[in-house]
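Module 6 notes. Inverse folding takes a fixed backbone as the condition and produces residue identities as the prediction. Think of it as a translation problem where the source language is geometry and the target language is the twenty amino acids. Below is one complete input and output pair. Work through it position by position during the lab.
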């Protein structure tokens, strides 16, 4: 935890984190980052996949752009754009709420200008809702789900 506090203090002296495109060697870091997430943030799956499933996912290149967020060569998070230009940001514990996500989002948008960006957020994830509202995203829809076996 102390290491991440030092990263944050050092980042205040810089303008932006560095974004590096994800490659297969990032699978372990991304898996550990995924395991840090609280279940309320999951919108696309109900549980953490196995490491093998995760490696297959990373190798499948599921996003149009997927970056590792780094600072002084330390991996501190990831940010991606889906093929529908949906944004996802995940930071190591201890770094959320310190402005790093905002800097990473700004950097990613500079690398990918002139797009319509979307954020698909679980309604239970109040932190992400606040983050994207603060980043000038506007609510455009609520989506409801009914699974076939539940309808009877």
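Target side of the pair, the amino acids:
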């Amino acid at each position: 935890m102390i290491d991440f506090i030092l990263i944050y203090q050092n980042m205040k002296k810089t303008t932006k984190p560095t974004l590096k495109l994800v490659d297969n060697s990032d699978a372990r870091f991304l898996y550990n980052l995924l395991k840090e997430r609280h279940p309320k943030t999951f919108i696309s799956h109900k549980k953490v996949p196995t490491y093998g499933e995760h490696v297959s996912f990373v190798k499948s290149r599921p996003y149009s752009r997927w970056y590792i967020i780094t600072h002084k060569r330390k991996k501190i998070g990831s940010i991606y754009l889906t093929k529908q230009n949906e944004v996802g940001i995940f930071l190591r514990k201890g770094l959320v709420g310190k402005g790093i996500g905002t800097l990473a989002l700004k950097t990613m948008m500079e690398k990918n200008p002139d797009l319509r960006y979307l954020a698909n957020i679980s309604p239970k994830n109040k932190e992400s809702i606040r983050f994207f509202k603060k980043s000038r995203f506007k609510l455009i829809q609520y989506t409801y789900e009914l699974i076939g076996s539940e309808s009877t």
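Reference fact for the lab report: Residues 4-8 have pLDDT under 50 and may be disordered.
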